[in-house]
Amino acid sequence: MMILTDVQAVRACIALIAVASLLQSTEMLALRPLTSDQGIWRWKTLRQDFGFFPKSVIRVFDVLLGYSGFLGVLLARWFLSLCILMFYFISADVPFFLLALLLLTTVLVLLRWRGTFNGGSDFMTLVVLMAVTAAQFDPSSEKLRLGALWYIAIQTCASYFISGIIKLRKENWRTGKALPGFLPSSSYETPKWVKRALADPLAGRLFSWATMIFECLFPLSLISPLACQCAIAGALLFHLSVFFLFGLNRFLFAWMSAYPALYFCSQMKR
Amino acid sequence: MNERAIFLLFAFFALLAVFSLSRRTQLEGRALFLFRAFFPSWRFFEDLGDAPTILFRTSVDDAEFGEWQPCLRKIRRRWYHLFLNPEGNRLLACSSAAQLLLADIEEADEADPGALENTVSYRVIRDWVRYRIHQMLPESASVSYQFKVLAGDDEVLLSPVYGDRPSK
Fold it and tell me: Which residues 100-119 of B are in CB contact (within 8 Å) with A?
């Protein structure tokens, strides 16, 4: 069974969150016209949300979150992600300031999108990024590393568990009607074979219960490294299915960046 | 790093964990709304509800209005979308914007219908409609447009007719 030390786990989380951040930033740069003064999310419209800040802070936001400033923030985030990956590949310690700047630019990007751009994947990106940044604040502190890794692991388990529990409480999930009901909200056309499959009440119920049971049992991944490996394999399959059906690609990479912490914590329980 | 700083960091993370795990954390106020990503909610695919649909129609050069058409168009699935899917994520962001408008409609003061038009959510949706029209009719000299919001089959908002050029 593979052994992961706390130092290796933090480094793996850092590398994977840098990959997620790089991909997210590339997507954002491709979408930059939407944030221009002729786009959908214009700064002059959105700054109304920021009215509670002191005027001096709003002036800073005007510079950073206006179209040209925001492009700079996106490019900085892209470049910082790349730098962090380079530090990882040359086996050097990733400096705290790079992670802190990546966290800062990530928060600025989220503010520009009225708090979140992609919901859950933004939440998990922040969970991992905040934790590894704290861990790198003092790389010699084992306590900080353990705290960061456990924080990520607990949030990861909570993400599946809470999602499973709230589904269990819903009748349309228990009866298998919810899953086909969510498909129209996808950014993709649902393949006919999927529609046909889920139209069968038995299949709908089967997939719904498989999802709920998997999510509710996910915290058991902390019991042992073997249980964790099985849970991670199941989770990857789950996220790939969600991507296939709903186009939610960011979730896969955001959650992947949390798995090294989960695996490390599963070893500690032994 | 001293013990106090470590304690504060742990207290901060513990607070975040408690917020995240609470069964129903209502975030009130504009500040918390903007910083809600710090308080993750893991309630995915909870309610089928009535997902809002934005429909719009246009009139070019004072002709009659055309048919209502959806603002969102589904995209074709591609394998590389697993890594980069800007268009798919744009559609998801537009859906979220529509959800925020629906929430504002539900909270709107019926005695002051004009107030809704000044909300950020409303203006974002209006700009989305303009953007969409601009994609469709880039050469149009004069376009009037109107949009409406459906929650399920119910019409919950019908905008006034706007007469400005879509590119503005």
Answer: 100
Q: How far apart are CA B131 and CA A34, in angstroms?
A: 9
HSE-up (13 A, CA, CB side) for residue A105: 24
Residues in chain B with CB shorter than 8 Å from the CB of A185 are 51, 95
User: Residue B125 has which token pair?
Assistant: 């949706």
Q: Which residues of A touch B50 (CB under 8 A)?
A: none
Which residues, numbered 18 to 47 in chain B, qualify as contacts with chain A under a Cβ-Cβ cut-off of 8 Å? 20-21, 29-31, 33-38, 40-47
Within the 132-161 window of chain A, which residues sit less than 8 Å (CB to CB) from chain B? 134, 137-138, 141, 143-144, 147, 151, 154-155, 158-161
Place of tokens 């009139």: B59
In sequence order, which residues have a C-beta less than 8 Å from that of residue A125 and are 6 or more positions away? A17, A20, A21, A24, A106, A254, A257
Please state the domain extents for chain B.
3-38, 52-158
Q: How far apart are CA B144 and CA B159, in angstroms?
A: 12
Rounded Cα gap, residues B94 and B51, in angstroms: 12
Q: Which of A106, A130, A134, A129 is nearest to A118 (CA)?
A: A106
A249 CB within 8 Å of a chain B CB: yes
B38–A119 C-beta distance less than 8 A: no
- Which residues, including other chains, have CB under 8 Å from residue B97's CB and lie 6 or more apart? A40, B121, B124, B125, B128
List CB contacts of B2: < 8 A, sequence separation 6 or more: none
Asked if A207 reaches chain B (Cβ–Cβ under 8 Å), the answer is: no
pTM (predicted TM-score)? 0.90
Integer-rounded Cα Rg, in Å, for chain A is 20
For A197-254, write each residue's pLDDT tens digit.
Answer: 888 889 889 999 999 999 999 999 998 999 999 999 999 999 999 999 999 999 999 9
Q: What are the structure tokens assigned to B47, written together?
A: 């309610």
Find the distance separating the first CA and the last CA of chain B, reported in whole Å: 54
Q: Which of B127, B152, B121, B137 is nearest to B60 (CA)?
A: B137
ipTM of the complex: 0.90
Q: What is the pLDDT of residues A182-193, one digit of tens each?
A: 888 888 888 888
> For chain A, where are the alpha helices, taking DSSP H only?
6-30, 43-46, 55-65, 67-89, 96-112, 120-137, 142-168, 171-174, 178-182, 192-199, 201-217, 225-246, 249-256, 259-268
Q: Determine the residue type at B138.
A: P
